[in-house]
Specification:
- The structure is a single chain.
- The chain is an alpha+beta fold.
- The chain has a domain of 155 residues: Cyclophilin-like (Cyclophilin).
- Helices cover 14% and strands 23% of the residues.
- It contains three helices and twelve strands; from the N terminus they run αββββαββββββαββ.
- It has a ten-stranded antiparallel beta sheet with strand order 5-12-3-4-10-8-9-7-6-11. Strands 1-2 form a two-stranded antiparallel ribbon.
- A hairpin with a 5-residue loop joins strand 1 and strand 2.
- The termini are far apart.
- InterPro entries: Cyclophilin-like_dom_sf (IPR029000), Cyclophilin-type_PPIase_dom (IPR002130), Cyclophilin_A-like (IPR044666).
C-alpha cells in the first residue's frame, strides 16, 4: 500500500502508482474551478460538492429527496452502550436493507459513536459517496455532505486493529490517518487486502446481495474509484441491542 502522507479527508489508501498517475492528471487539468468547491478524497480524485440527483439503478428506487440534518457535536459522545451485550444495526437504503452485527466488545467507542449518530438520525438521507472496484472493493458511506469531507464535528481513536483483516462482509471506519475516526464507514463487498489501519466494528449479516448489486453497477463513468453509478441513499439507519 502507498507510503505517501495521508490526506485530510476520510478514506482508504490506494496503491502508490495510482496516486502518482492521478496526481499527474490533476496537475494537467488544474484544481481550481470558478464557483465550484473541490474536495480531494484519499485517492486524489476530485469530487464536486454536493453530488447531483441521478436516476436510480436496477433494483433501486429513487431516493426520497430529503436532506440530512447536518448536526454537529463538539466532542465524542459519552459511553452509553454495554459492551457485554450484542448490538445490531439496519441500513435501510433506497436499494434494499442491509443489516449489521456490531462488535461492541472489541470496538466499544466505535459502536457507541455509530449508535449515537444513528439515534440522532445523522445518517438518514445521506448518500454513499464512494465505490472502489480495483484492488479494494468497498462502498463508503456516512458523510452527510456527500463529498468525502464531512464529519460529525468530533474524532475518536482507532480500535481493534491488531491482526485486522477485511474479508467480504466487514464493516469498518474510514479515516484520514491514525485516530481520526468520525462518521464515515465502509462496507466490504469482496475480500480486500487492506493494511490494519481501519477500525473493523461489525459484520454484514443480511443484505449482502443488496451491496453486491450496488457494486455490480460500478462507479460513475466507469472509473475504478468514485461515486457509485447507482445512486445510493441511506434512507434511515437504526442501531441498538440485539
Amino acid at each position: 500500500m502507498n507510503s505517501v502522507a495521508q490526506p485530510q479527508q476520510p478514506g482508504i489508501d490506494r496503491p502508490e502508482r495510482r496516486i502518482r498517475k492521478q496526481r499527474k492528471t490533476l496537475r494537467r487539468i488544474g484544481l481550481v474551478a470558478a464557483g465550484v468547491a473541490i474536495a480531494i478524497v484519499v485517492t486524489g480524485r476530485a469530487f464536486a460538492a454536493p453530488l447531483p440527483a441521478h436516476t436510480a439503478g436496477p433494483g433501486c428506487m429513487t431516493d426520497s429527496g430529503a436532506q440530512p440534518n447536518g448536526k454537529q457535536w463538539p466532542a465524542e459522545p459519552a459511553m452509553a452502550i454495554d459492551q457485554g451485550f450484542p448490538y445490531s444495526a439496519t441500513l435501510q437504503t433506497n436499494c434494499g436493507a442491509i443489516t449489521l452485527s456490531l462488535d461492541a466488545a472489541r470496538a466499544p467507542r466505535t459502536v457507541n459513536s455509530f449508535a449515537f449518530l444513528a439515534g440522532e438520525q445523522y445518517f438518514d438521507h445521506t448518500r454513499c459517496h464512494r465505490l472502489t472496484t480495483e484492488s479494494i472493493f468497498v462502498l463508503q458511506c456516512g458523510d452527510p455532505t456527500g463529498t468525502g469531507t464531512g464529519t460529525p464535528g468530533y474524532r475518536f481513536d482507532d480500535e481493534n486493529l491488531t491482526g485486522a483483516t477485511y474479508p467480504a462482509g466487514t464493516v469498518a471506519m474510514a479515516n484520514s490517518g491514525p485516530n481520526t475516526n468520525g462518521s464515515q464507514f465502509f462496507l466490504v463487498y469482496a475480500d480486500s487486502p487492506l493494511p490494519p489501519k481501519y477500525t473493523p466494528f461489525g459484520r454484514i449479516t443480511a443484505g449482502m446481495d443488496v451491496l453486491q448489486n450496488i457494486a455490480g453497477g460500478g462507479a460513475r463513468d466507469g472509473a475504478p474509484d468514485g461515486p457509485p453509478a447507482t445512486d445510493v441513499s441511506l434512507e434511515s439507519v437504526t442501531a441498538g441491542q440485539g
